[in-house]
Amino acid sequence: MKNIKDQENLNQKKVLLRLDLNVPIKNGKITDQTRIDKILPVIDFLLKKKCKIIVISHVGRPKGKINNDLSLKPICENLKKKIKKEITLIKEDIFKLKKEDLFQNTENEIIFLENIRFYEQEEKNDLDFSKQLAKLADIFVNDAFSCSHRAHASVSKVAELLPSYAGLQLETELNALKKVTTEIKKPITCIIGGSKISTKIGVIKNLIPKFDNIIVVGGMANNILKYKGNQIGKSIREDNCESIIDDIFKASKTHSCSIIYPHDVRVGKSIEDSPQIKELKEIEVDDFILDIGPKTINNIKNIIENSKTVLWNGPAGYFENKNFANGSYEIAKKIIKHNKNNSIYSVVGGGDTIAVLNQINAINEFNFVSTAGGAFLEYLEGKELPGIKALN
User: Which residue range(s) make up the domain with 219?
Assistant: First the structure.
């Protein structure tokens, strides 16, 4: 896979740059800028190389229809302030655009095409649409790892039609994930949370042969607690997961991987309640399990203490209520402590995990923080990602 940073002759080249700027927007305001901050290095690199940049991205799921609430305008304005450069948002129909019409003002260096998912051809991976995109540029750069599990026109098909390169962020992301899947420093621990165990079963099964410890927290852990015969009250759980959990424990025995789950919890009578610490045998039928307890936290800290590599995806509790964010905060603080003395390599991924880190201003305290959700998990599951395959 060729990387754009290794290319020498980029002067005045028109670069079709696929980014993931799918940031949360509320009432026209961006509520989390993490993904915008992550793309600044590739923008800076291409500007220094005197390129003309044509940015492609999406926001939300407009399903092939124009939706002004999902315009890239707020993102353009945000990026403009960050890089102190003029940015033009082109709302004209992509099929009517011509390469020679772009950058007629020679001082313009960056243009944005409007939300690429306003076109139904994007998600259909349409060849004609991809050809039209390719006609606008000299080269293609994919710096959107978090979209690379999608076989979409601006991610995979266009890469077959132009000289194509990986962006700086995409390469960094892949290198970080390789360190926790192939270039492993053991002992290695995975902390995995979230609400649905069925969505992450492929990841867990793929990691069991490679990892020493898999710690299950969050709503997923409730399924294991129920499987083990514990009362979980009104806590979130999935139905018909017994065979999945049975497979996990069987595989863990085969590969000598420890599966760790909570032994005490914080509960409330509602998600807005104050926390009560309970042993598993004390959980009542009207309790909601909303965080891990202090004994479980100390156990996880001891495991991190004895690990060389840690992968973390998914919070330990209902962090939206800070009464139930303690488990996630304590995990974060323990990993950060060991990062600072270089005794651990840490990779963190997933939107909710990033939200937790932003709450305590810790986003820059890990070796690598991935903004990818589906692509992050599919890579860990061992799947081939269409966007990466196209670059190869």
Answer: 180-380
Q: Which two tokens stand for residue 199?
A: 């969505």
Mark whether 189 and 115 lie in a shared domain: no
Q: How far is CA 159 from CA 2, 65, 383, 388, 389, in A?
A: 12, 24, 19, 10, 10
Same domain, 237 and 341: yes
Distance (Å, whole) CA 169 – CA 36: 12
* Residue 284: DSSP 8-state: -
Cα end-to-end distance, the chain, whole Å: 5
pLDDT tens for residues 122-132? 999 999 999 99
Please report, for the domain that includes residue 101, its CATH number: 3.40.50.1260
336 phi, psi to nearest 5 deg: -60, -45
φ/ψ (deg, to 5) at 198: -65, -30
Residue 49, pLDDT above cutoff 90: yes
CA distance 338 to 210: 22
Cα–Cα distance measured from residue 345 to residue 326, given in angstroms and rounded to the nearest whole number: 23
Instruction: Write down which residue in 146, 170, 194 finishes a domain.
Output: 170
Cα R_g (the chain), whole angstroms? 23
Looking at the DSSP bridge assignments, the partners of residue 26 are: 29
- 337 and 300 in contact (C-beta within 8 Å)? no
Query: Who's near 93: CB < 8 A, 6+ residues apart?
Result: none
- Of the three residues 139, 170, 201, the one that is the final residue of a domain is 170
How does 111-150 read in b/e, with b if 16+ C-beta sit within 10 Å? bbbbbbbbbebbbebbeebbebbbebbbbbbbbbbbbbbb
User: Phi, psi (5° rounding) for residue 300?
Assistant: -65, -40
Q: To 10 degrees, the CA torsion angle through 133, 134, 135, 140? A: 110
- Based on the number of CB atoms within 10 Å of its own CB, is 92 exposed (0-12), middle (13-18) or buried (19 or more)? exposed
Residue 198 binned pLDDT confidence (cut-offs 50, 70, 90): confident
